[in-house]
Amino acid sequence: MRNAIRERLLERVPELEDAYEPHAADKDSEKPYAILLQGEESDETPWAGFRRIMEVWPYVSRSTFEKVDTLEKKIITALDKQMLTTEAGEVFSCVYLGSAGQDVVDEEWDAITRGIQFAVMALQPVGTNDSLTSDPWVPALADWTSGILGPNWTIYNGFWPLGYVRPAIMWRVTGIDVKLLGLSSYNVSKRFTVHVLGNGQHPEHVGVAALIEGLGSAIKIPYDFADRRYLTVADPKANIGADAISEGQITVTLSRRVARPQEDAPLIRSVNYKSNIR
Asked: How far apart are CA 97 and CA 119, in angstroms?
């Protein structure tokens, strides 16, 4: 993963002479260059894989921090929300978190620098598979979503797969409730979380706004046209500031009425009757 980040930086930020691991650089290394610091790693969720903190420190000759500012912007553009692939085929993305501290003057190395912090999200399902995270309602929701956002958005069911494509939507079930309506039917309600991942041409906030407005105006979403079955929409909510990968920005409850199966009772073979009338 570190090597994939290094190659991306050298490709997209040609001003950098190199990108080093902490022990590889020294005071004689030609500037400007970057040092890559790997932070702690933690398991995230079955739909998001794992999260690791990575810091990039651009080093320039001791002059003005405007040069650091320029490199910082280019490094963020090269890495933020970009999909990278390791030599082993593992796919991950970097999300810019902000500065890793204040400006630093390194007198020994005659350099100035500032840390840039990224969260590295490896989109590898942890301890799960398709059958555990997918939901049979999502194909119908995918058709409805494509009608709202258009064909450029890819729709995923239950988790972020390796090699996911932006812009993307992921529908994920977070709760199920069943309520008996009578002897002949019951109601199934599912609480969904919707994750919206945008890109430069299709920003996340635009996708979130379009979906929440669509859910707010939709009384029902088609589930099966042939049988005239629909999903009823209730309580759609959006949080623009939520993390698109690990949290999801939209929640909504969908429900449908389901007929209870009728068991065949055995036919009555005979009836015994005794009259009490005298």
From this structure: 7
